[in-house]
Amino acid sequence: MKAGLGALEARLFAYAQMRATRTVRRGAVADALRITRDQEAELLSRLARAGLIARVRPGVYLVPPRLPLGGVWSPDEALALDTLMQEYGARYQVCGPSAFNRYGLDEQIPNRVYAYNDKLSGERRVGIVTLVLIKVAKKRLGDTDDIRNAEGNEMPYSSRTRTLVDAVYDWSRFDGLPRGYGWIRADMESGRTKPVDLVRCTLRYGNVATVRRMGALLEREGVSPSLLHKLDRRLRTTRSTIPWDPTRTKRGTVDRRWGVIWNTDV
Predict the structure, then answer these.
(1) Which residues, other chains included, contact 110 with Cβ-Cβ below 8 Å and sequence gap of 6+?
(2) What angle do CA 86, 89, 93 make, to 5 degrees?
(3) Prior bond to 110 cis, omega within 30?
(4) pTM for this entry
(5) Ranges of each domain in the chain
C-alpha cells in the first residue's frame, strides 16, 4: 500500500477485498467501518483526490483489487464505462472515433471513449477515463461485437458495418464525411464489408439522409439493382436535395434518384 496510508484507509481497502467487490457506496462504508457519515464522506473524497479510488457517480466509487506500485490507480476504459452504465441501467455500445480507431479506419487514437446509450448525454469522467455519452433511442442500439481489451475486460463495440454506416449518419459529430466514403469503398473492395450488410444496416439504423448518401455511393460502386431498390423504396418522392459532401458548398450536379448534389470529386 501507499506509504502513509492511514488506518482508516487501510480498513476501507480491506473491507472491499473481503467482500470481493470493485464498487463501494456511501452509507455502506460508514456502516461497515463504524464511522460517521461526515467521516465517510471525507475518507472517500480524500482517496478519490489522491487517485486511489475512482468516483463513478455521487456516492459510488470504484476500488482497485490491490493498490498498484506508486499508489495511483484508475480503472481501464471498459471497467469505467460498464460500471457507469450499470449504475444507470443503460444499454450502450462504443462508437464513433473509438470504433474508427479500433477497426483500423483511423490511426488517430482518441483521448475519450465515445458511446451510444439510452440514458445519459454529455461528458463524464471516471478516474482518468473521459467518456462522451450520446443518448439515442433504444431502436438505434444494436449490431455490436464484444471485444476484449488488454486488461481482459469486454466492451460492446458497434460492428464494423455499423461503424461505417454511423460515419455517414453521424458525420457532423464524428467528422465522418467525406472520409467515410473512402472507408466504405476500401472495405467493399477488400471484401471485409459486403454491400448487402451495408444496405441492411443503413435501413435499420440510418435516416433519410443516410439512405440517400449510401444509395448514391453504392450505385456509383456498381452494386446490384436489387439492393439499390431496397434503399430506393425507403425514400419518398421529394424535390429537396442534400450535398454529397456536407462540409462543402452545396453546388454541383444533382442526382435526381437519390436527391444528392455531387459537390465534390468522387
Answers:
(1) 97, 98, 101
(2) 70
(3) no
(4) 0.92
(5) 7-62, 77-158, 162-262
- C-alpha cell belonging to residue 25: 457506496
Q: What share of the chain is helix, strand, coil (3-state, %, to 5)?
A: 40, 20, 40
Give the full edge-to-edge strand order of the sheet including 60-62. 23-25, 60-62, 54-57
Cβ atoms within 10 Å of 175's Cβ, excluding its own = 15
Q: What tens digit of pLDDT does each residue of 171-224 get?
A: 999 999 999 999 999 999 999 999 999 999 999 999 999 999 999 999 999 999
CATH architecture of 7-62: Orthogonal Bundle (1.10)
pLDDT digits (tens, 9 = 90+) for 56-67: 999 999 999 887
Nearest-angstrom CA–CA distance, 106 and 97:
8
